[in-house]
Amino acid sequence: MTDRPTASRRLLLAALPAALATALASRAGAQALLPGSASLLVPGPEGGLHARWAERLAQAIATGAPTAVRLQADILGGADGVTAANRFATEAAPDGRSLLVLAGAAAQARLAGDSRAKFDNAGWLPVCASLGCAVVAGRGPRPQRGAAPPLAVAVGAPEGSGAAALLAMDLLGLPATPLAGPPTQLWQDGKAAALLLSGPAVPSRLAAMGAEPWFVLDAGPGEHDPALPDVPTLADLAPAQAPALLAACRATGAAARLLAGLVLPALTPADQVALWRNAVQRWLEEETRGGGAIGLAMPGAEAAAVMAVMSPGPEAVLAYREWLLRRLGWQAG
Predict the structure, then answer these.
(1) Where are the beta strands (DSSP E) in the chain?
(2) Are 235 and 250 in contact (CB under 8 A)?
């Protein structure tokens, strides 16, 4: 008779650690939830590309997330996204309640040293993204090293992504002369022999322009752009003696390729990042079925790889800004 209560007590004591672990796990699971609402900074204007992208994304999250969550969009600044990125850098807390639609043009402004860009996007955590292409195209086949006379390359604004076409020619040892002005117009007027073509629907735009794709910018050696699988990369073609400038050129290409990306602040807890990435699955599926309303839909892990290219190390950034000053007279702020 005296042994039976002792045995019961032993069973109860043995069960305590398991019960405690279950309770702690349940508590952790209860904490790992998306917030009921979150703020989303979106580059303007109202009705623009980024606003439309954010609206579709918010609708998909509202209907597809495991828990109810509402994104409160604040449209701010212009289409280059610099104003929205600045606000995000100064006000967003890493608690899973603050997100940004990052424009590739904002990352390019930071890379070039635009004095307006007061943020550092290197540590921001991608949730998903829409990507286009970034390809240098020209009239006829790609020229070989030693070609003459110099190629007329449309660069647009020196701090913009179009300058990457000129940098790529320098890396390939092809004599080139920069042309200022709208690249597409310079091409249509017959003044430009080469330009960077980026954004959505690049293959069809190439065909409409009668341009030959020479190489894509942001992919590494042996990699390919899924929209242009037969086109080589700059990394495949360029010599290896200027790694910093090659990294910078690839970064510019990645920024030109990024149409819109949903990001969280640096230091956001991993469980919150995972929850947000899970919440956009419905959007990813809808975009994939629809062929991508803007560009190729990318989940967070793949978008992170592109954004890592977009944020090179300080040696590449310095080399790029020195090249901009030497070649195009652009002084970083």
Answers:
(1) 37-43, 70-76, 98-102, 125-131, 133-138, 151-154, 176-179, 194-199, 212-216, 258-264, 296-299
(2) yes
pLDDT tens, N- to C-terminus, the chain (333 residues): 444 443 333 333 333 343 333 333 333 444 578 888 999 999 999 999 999 999 999 999 988 888 878 889 999 999 999 999 999 999 999 999 999 999 999 999 999 999 999 999 999 999 999 999 999 999 999 998 877 789 999 999 999 999 999 999 999 999 999 999 999 999 999 999 999 999 999 999 999 999 999 999 998 888 889 899 999 999 999 988 899 999 999 999 999 999 999 999 999 999 999 999 999 999 999 998 877 668 899 999 999 999 999 999 999 999 999 999 999 999 998
CA contacts within 13 A on the Cβ side of 244:
11
Q: Name the CA radius of gyration of the chain, rounded.
A: 24
Q: Which of 59, 254, 284 is nearest to 164 (CA)?
A: 254
Nearest by Cα to 303 from 257, 243, 261, 247: 261
Burial of 148 (0-12, 13-18, 19+ CB in 10 A): exposed
Write the single-letter amino acid at 140: G
DSSP-derived letter for residue 123 is G
Helix (H) and strand (E) counts in the chain: 13, 11
